[in-house]
UniProtKB/TrEMBL annotation:
PROSITE patterns: HIS_KIN. SMART domains: HATPase_c. Its EC number is 2.7.13.3. The chain crosses the membrane at residues 12-31, 177-198. Keywords: Coiled coil, Kinase, Membrane, Phosphoprotein, Transferase, Transmembrane, Transmembrane helix, Two-component regulatory system. This is histidine kinase. It comes from Idiomarina piscisalsi. It catalyses: ATP + protein L-histidine = ADP + protein N-phospho-L-histidine. Gene3D superfamilies: Histidine kinase-like ATPase, C-terminal domain.
Amino acid sequence: MQSLASHTRSNRWLAIAIIAIALGGLLLTYWQSSAQLVSRTKSSLEKTCSDIQQAVSSLYPASETQQQSVKNPELLYQAISESIRKEEHTLGGFWHINSGFAGYAIASSRGNTQNAQLSGSDQLVISSASREALAENKPVANVTDQIPMLVVLACPEKEHAGLAIWLSRPIQPAQNYFSVTASILFALLALIGVAIIVRESLFNRRWHQERDRIVADAEDTSKAVSVTSEVGEVQPFLLLLYQARQQVQATERELMAETDKLRLAAEKTLVGRMARSMAALALSDLEALEKKLRDFDSEDLKFKVQELVSLFETFSQLSPNMQGLDKSNIELEAWLQDIADHHESFSGEKNITVTSIVDDDLHVTINPLVFRFIFDFLLRHVVAFTPVNSEVLIQATVDGDYVNVSVSDESSGVAKRNLGTMFETDDVNPDAYGVGLKVIKDAIKSQGGDINYEKLEKTSRFNVLIPMTKG
């Protein structure tokens, strides 16, 4: 199959040219037909007759009654001569109802070389038209049958009674058989042009249907690519598409394998990060247990051991999305104070002061390991980028159905280029403040909470929203 572009270029203008020639030929045939030629000649002669009438009226004084006899006929001949001088092959004169032809016919000055005498048959036609025009008091036209045809028009002259102006002009119309034959040929030519346009439309429809089929097959990656098509120009591209599809499928398989590896690596990275928080949490519980071991009875000891068992069970059930973990009721003051003390002791040479301020009797519902992980990760990040000898403030307040645990520091804040992606990317070793915090966002979202960032006048603040324990 030919391509759409080349097919359209080769046939569009051809069809337009054929139809234009056919319509032009039909119009020309119609224009040159006997009826049209006679009609145009009659209209021309009527106008000329009206001009002659006006010229004659200007030569005679205005009168309410018509003159009965023709006086100064030379003036009449002068008027008709001036009027038909520019009319090609036109004869003219006057005819009186009593005396017949007044003088002789006057030939036009444009190429008519025949003499002024009229044949007997022409005189009869002119006399008949003149009598009828005088009787009906309006222009009357007669046409002879022989070729060339003679068109005769007579009109009453209004200044003299019984006087008519007559004009004649020979015409050479096309023969009827020629007009019919030409009309049929041009009509067939027009039909050929229409047929080309219809064929072009059908071709375009089939081409676009085939194109849509190919596009649909190409977009549906689950289907095999067909390497055959009615659009011959597309055939090589289908072969290339088939090869590309095979390469894409192979690449997708490799990508899936690599994705699985990355997922496992991410799980291991998350497990490693979470293990750090779990170790700190377990160590804190064990230290508390050690300090109060002598004061604990068997039930208290059993409860603490059960907490440690639950902590390790949570760690063993950990998944990348951190869904399905058991939630507990956590009393914030003790937890946040333990976290603050832990990170202050590990700030090292930076000498960071970490302070925790919590409203009285605030409790939240969250998984303990996830809670510890969120604030361990966030505080390690803040301490890493906050200035030396500065302070980090942890403050918990009620915010509707949530508890807002804010972490404020004295850093310069998140750079503008990182504001849009601070919670969208994960980075094990970030190089700037506010970079790679996606894991915190995912963790708090898994517990029904949220996190946001705001830059205040002298401090930067992260707000961690945690569902508050009701009742």
